[in-house]
Amino acid sequence: MSAERDLVSSEAEGDERLIEAALRPKRLEEFIGQARVREQLSLVLHSALRRNRPPDHVLMSGAPGLGKTTLSMIIAAELSVPLRITSGPALERAGDLAAILSTLSEGEVLFIDEIHRMARPAEEMLYLAMEDFRVDIVVGKGPGATAIPLEVAPFTLVGATTRAGLLPAPLRDRFGFVAHMDFYEAAELEQVLHRSARLLGLRLPEEAAREIAGRSRGTPRIANRLLRRVRDFAEVRADGAISRDVAAAALNLYEVDAEGLDRLDRAVLGALLGKFGGGPVGLSTLAVAVGEEPETVEVVAEPFLVRQGLLARTPRGRVATAAAWVHLGLTPPPGAFGAAVVADQRPDLPDLGDDPAAS
Ligand SMILES: Nc1ncnc2c1ncn2[C@@H]1O[C@H](COP(=O)(O)OP(=O)(O)OP(=O)(O)O)[C@@H](O)[C@H]1O
Fold first, then answer.
1. Would the pTM of this model clear 0.90, i.e. be above it?
2. Which of 303, 25, 63 is nearest to 160 (CA)?
3. Is position 6 annotated as part of the catalytic site?
4. Which of 3, 5, 101, 197 would bridge 202 by S-S if both were Cys, CB 3.0 to 4.6 A apart?
5. CB of 70 shorter than 6 A to ligand 1
6. Which one, of 169, 268, 168, 259, lies nearest residue 216 by Cα?
């Protein structure tokens, strides 16, 4: 992944991760935005505290960087219980999960990031653990195999996923509360930026915060990262003084445009318009055209492009909207919008546009 992609990608690395951790809100009242999720979660937690029982299992779904990990930490902090963190890809075998479950303490919060990527045997073990606080450890193989039941201390599972549609129904149904995290409004991102600037000891004028928020793709993690790049630019080129113009110049330098589109977004739109006449085209074909994994295109670029009204996911594949042609300064071919395209903007729509003939 190039340095430019890192700027707006979902992952943070090295020092950036440390800074990110320092910027995380620690309590629910410090958590900015997501008002509905906050209120719902607050009720779930307070009623559990009153009953002196662990709350229902919580599933959080939403794009990367919207605060799912942060919320899981807040849940444990609000309940004053320890937190254990793992991720779906780390749970390859049932034994990986059994090792964690068997050492949980009473009331502990278990956070499984990317829960949709857990291996099937671990997933099946989790069903029983979530429902009955018990797991069956299978010893031996073939006809002689026996299942030894093992008690698990009552715990709260917090699962996070960027692809709720990929979760099997039996798993999804075992969560008592599902929090749908949406992209943040610009005003909320401005608050995130002011809070982070305070913590980083930066002076951030209102107009500069507005400029950065407008380019942050509705995502706090990206807002924080762009703020750090603006700070770098200001230190080297503007005696440390951040202004709207300094912010705009810094972000232009990093190829984040006024609407927040980055290189990948523009590459996806560019390929869709330039190579496929605006679509429809299948996800895999589009991903090959921009040299990225289909999942990166689907999880990182598409939700934002759909939200900006630049791309539509249809049963026949991905289609550029009229606004996409305008955004890239191109003219659509005659009749491009003649046929009515029924856009289904559900984030987890199966990719039906990937028939081999299209590739
Ligand atoms: N509501 C918020 N208020 C303030 N800062 C936030 C908020 N949500 C997220 N952040 C900031 O954004 C960063 C990323 O959040 P977090 O790691 O929780 O996202 P995530 O949804 O778990 O992402 P991923 O799924 O990629 O792990 C955190 O460091 C935190 O500082």
1. no
2. 63
3. no
4. 197
5. yes
6. 259
At 328, the pLDDT band (50, 70, 90 cuts) reads confident
For a substitution probing ligand 1, which of 61, 70, 296 has the most ligand atoms within 8 Å of its CB? 70
Q: Tokens for 85?
A: 């963190």
Q: Which residues of 19-44 are buried (b: 16+ CB within 10 A; e: fewer)?
A: bbeebbbeebeebbbbeebbebbeeb
Task: Please enumerate in sequence order all residues whose Cβ is within 8 A of that of 250, keeping only pairs 6 or more positions apart, or say none.
Answer: 229, 230, 232, 233, 234
Scan for tokens 């479950």, then name that residue.
Answer: 101
Do the interacting molecules here have an ipTM over 0.90? Answer: yes
Q: In terms of CATH architecture, what is 263-358?
A: Orthogonal Bundle (1.10)
CA 341 – CA 350 distance, rounded (Å):
17
Domain limits, the chain: 34-180, 186-253, 263-358
Question: pLDDT at position 22, please?
Answer: 83
Structure tokens at 13: 């690395």
Name the nearest CA neighbour of 278 among 335, 346, 210. 335
Averaged over 269-295, what is the pLDDT?
93
Query: What is the position in ligand 1's atom list of the atom closest to the CA of 33?
Result: 1
**Which secondary structure element, helix H or strand E, spans residue 160, and what is its range?**
strand 156-161
Hey, what CATH class is 186-253 in?
mainly alpha
> How far is residue 348's CA from residue 62's CA, in Å, rounded to a whole number?
11
Burial class from Cβ neighbours inside 10 Å (0-12, 13-18, 19+) for residue 83 reads middle
34-180: CATH superfamily: P-loop containing nucleotide triphosphate hydrolases (3.40.50.300)
Q: For residue 87, what pLDDT is reported?
A: 96
Ligand 1 touching residue 68 (CB < 6 A): yes
Sign of the dihedral defined by the CA atoms of residues 18, 22, 23, 27, in that order: positive
The answer, yes or no, to whether residue 80 has pLDDT greater than 70, is yes
> Pick from 171, 74, 178, 71: which is nearest to 130 by CA?
171
